[in-house]
Design goal:
Blueprint (H helix, E strand, L loop, with lengths): L3 E5 L4 H4 L2 H10 L3 E6 L4 H6 L3 E4 L15 H25 L4 E5 L3 H10 L3 E5 L6 H5 L2 H13 L1 H18 L6 H4 L6 E4 L16 E3 L21 E5 L8 H11 L5 E5 L16 E4 L4 H5 L4 E4 L3 H9 L4 E3 L4 H12 L3 E3 L7 H13 L1 H15 L3 H18 L1
Parallel strand pairs: 1-2, 1-4, 2-3, 4-5, 5-6, 6-7, 8-9, 8-11, 9-10, 11-12, 12-13
Helix pairs in contact: 2-16, 4-5, 4-8, 7-13, 10-14, 12-15
Length: 399
């Protein structure tokens, strides 16, 4: 019989997109895949030949747009765990899968695997977040301390939910931060040891497979000039409501000998940004891979998917983090020489212009990006991730 694989994920593009090529590879190799998530991903999942399972009714309303406070986020995820486990545990006990794959922010997937005695594979789309990794970023530690104070009510709620899960199922979640780093017995990590903080401390439980990139590229729906450097600006899909930042970009580059593609997302009123210089193209969204193939410098929030896609094309980056994990990503981009880091609080037109000019004029940034990107792509991506997952299923069948 073909192996049966259940995948549990959080409803976020950054955590879902790397898994979709893996789903395609698993289906191609004959596995029966069920994917538990929310309806916005249904068409993509079913288009790959997998079965979509809707868990949106089981998630708290605040799970759809995660809180930037890590303690409030942990409380939200644990409340989702209580609901999903109560609904799906009886059915999965009657008909358990061979393997459960769960995102590192998905405690309900990890909890179900433990209660069922099913092999678990962690899907880690950011970094392996260990104490050593956290200590590598003093700025991150400072932010977490501030979140601890602001998240007092969430920490109390977390303790109540954790107590109920312990009483009902015998599972223990002692620390809110531990919920944000749900490791499987085996784990696929969609980055490289070079980018991973404190990579020398990772054990054999972690397979660094590099980026899992889609093979389908949407074409450009606007014109770009040949021979003119392209600066691409995007803050991703989650925290992109930043009109002041976009206005600073317009002013920074209006007199520069470059062309700009500015992707602003759905929440920003383009008209409110003011006059758009003739060298700037503003869109709500763009086909990112097609744009990056032409890009000279990428001004990015530092999401892992965006960073890996830039590295795949050897594009140097100016990272302007919008969240704590992105700060850590930006620090790693800077450390490997593939770009620069600029705090969102320090953004001005002058600073943006100066940093981008530096990236354009110094070829070492592009060379480092290409080198790190080539190493990451050599690790196997989706094909290797699928191989790791299927090996877990075969180990179970042998047992």
């Amino acid at each position: 019989m073909p192996p049966r694989i259940d995948i549990f994920n959080v409803p976020a593009h950054g955590h879902t997109n790397p898994t979709l090529p893996v789903v395609a590879e698993l289906v191609r190799r004959g596995a029966h895949v069920r994917y538990f998530t929310t309806p916005e991903f249904r068409a993509q999942i079913e288009g790959l030949g997998a079965t979509f399972v809707d868990i949106a009714p089981l998630l708290p309303p605040d799970a759809v747009r995660p809180d930037s406070n890590l303690f409030r986020l942990a409380d939200t995820l644990l409340r989702a765990t209580e609901s999903v486990v109560a609904t799906w545990l009886p059915e999965l006990r009657r008909n358990p899968p061979d393997v459960i794959v769960h995102d590192s922010l998905c405690p309900w997937g990890r909890t179900l695997a433990r209660l069922l005695g099913v092999p678990s594979v962690g899907s880690i789309t950011t970094f392996v977040l260990s104490p050593a990794a956290a200590l590598s970023s003093p700025a991150l530690l400072g932010e977490v301390a501030g979140m601890w104070v602001a998240g007092a009510a969430a920490r109390q709620s977390f303790r109540r939910v954790a107590a109920r899960l312990r009483a009902q199922h015998g599972v223990s979640y002692r620390s809110p931060l531990s919920v944000l780093s749900q490791m499987g017995e085996t784990n696929v990590v969609y980055t490289s040891p070079t980018l991973q903080p404190a990579a020398d401390q990772r054990s054999g439980r972690f397979s660094f497979v590099g980026p899992s990139l889609s093979n389908t590229h949407r074409p450009l729906d606007f014109d770009l000039k040949d021979g003119v450097p392209l600066v691409y600006v995007s803050l991703g899909t989650l925290r992109n409501d930043a009109p002041m930042f976009y206005r600073a970009c317009l002013r920074a580059f209006e007199h520069e000998p470059v062309q700009i593609v500015l992707s602003v997302g759905a929440a920003v009123e383009v008209a409110a940004l003011g006059p758009v210089p003739p060298n700037v193209t503003v869109r709500r969204s763009v086909p990112q891979l097609a744009v990056l193939a032409r890009t000279s410098v990428f001004v990015t929030h530092g999401g892992m998917n965006s960073v890996h896609e830039a590295l795949a094309f050897g594009v140097p980056m100016l990272v302007v983090p919008q969240g704590s994990d992105q700060r850590l990503v930006g620090e790693r981009v800077r450390a490997v020489g593939a770009g620069l880091l600029l705090s969102a609080r320090r953004v001005t037109p002058n600073l943006l212009g100066e940093r981008v000019r530096r990236l354009l004029s110094d070829s070492r940034y592009r060379e480092a990006s290409a080198r790190v990107g080539a190493e990451a792509l050599s690790l196997g991506g989706a094909a290797r991730a699928a191989k790791v997952i299927l090996a877990c299923g075969l180990a179970k069948s042998v047992d």
